[in-house]
Every structure is written in structure tokens, then in C-alpha cells.
Predict the structure.
Amino acid sequence: MPVYPVDEPVHIPFQSVRIVSTPVSAGFPSPAGDDLEDEIDPMAWVVRHPSSTFWWRVEGDCLWDAGIRDGDIIAVDRAGKRRIGRAVLAVVDGAVTAKILRKRGDRYYLAPANSQEQFPDVELTEDSEIWGVIAGVVRRYDLA
């Protein structure tokens, strides 16, 4: 799954917004609550380490099962712990890719997370570099 940098920096002012404390049902409708919880700052909620976080736009659906879709913008945290099973952004053979970090035997590789389509695993080499861990996703829907 190729991942491309965002053409222009995304400047989103950190701003708190009100949040409703009653969870919304994604299945059957539930009675709406009028309770407002505290305020949250959506960017602060996604970005844990502002000085080490950068953003990339995703192209492709290799991480569909991880909730990352074509056109999404991912927050990549260079300070995030690189653990097996986490979605990471890495450079392999000069190409930037986002996949799930896996280990088979004593070898590390990047695996897709899409049960509907086939994508190849990418073995990490000595020249590969994991740039960071995907810490969040921003998705914009077409409202037209």
C-alpha cells in the first residue's frame, strides 16, 4: 500500500469541542441523551507527542481491517513504541508504506490488514526504517 505525504501541511488549531457523554449506537438507534460531557480537543486526543508526530495521506486499502482507508490522513508518531501488531509507517527499498508490523521466526515484516483483497507481505531488510507508529486517523466524508 503506497502512502504519500500530504502536499501541504495540515494546520489544525488545537481547539476544544463539546462532547456528548451518551455513546451513540452504530447499530440500532438508541434514545438520544442531552448530556454534554466535558470538552475535548480532538487533535490532542489523536496527537500524544506533538513534537514527534507528522501526517501522511493514505492511498489504497491495505489497512482496511485496521480502519484505515484510501484517502485517510494518518498521524504517525515517531515516539510510538514499535510493537508487533501495531500499524507502522516504514521505508522499505526506498518506498514508503504503511502496514502492520509482524514477526515470523526471527524475521520482521510488514503485513496488510485486509481480509477482502490480497496484498503482499513486505520483509524488512537492514536498510528498512520504521518511521513511526500510526497513532490516529482522520477521515473526511463527502457531504455534497
Observations:
- The CA atoms of residues 22 and 32 lie 7 Å apart.
- Helices lie at 42-46.
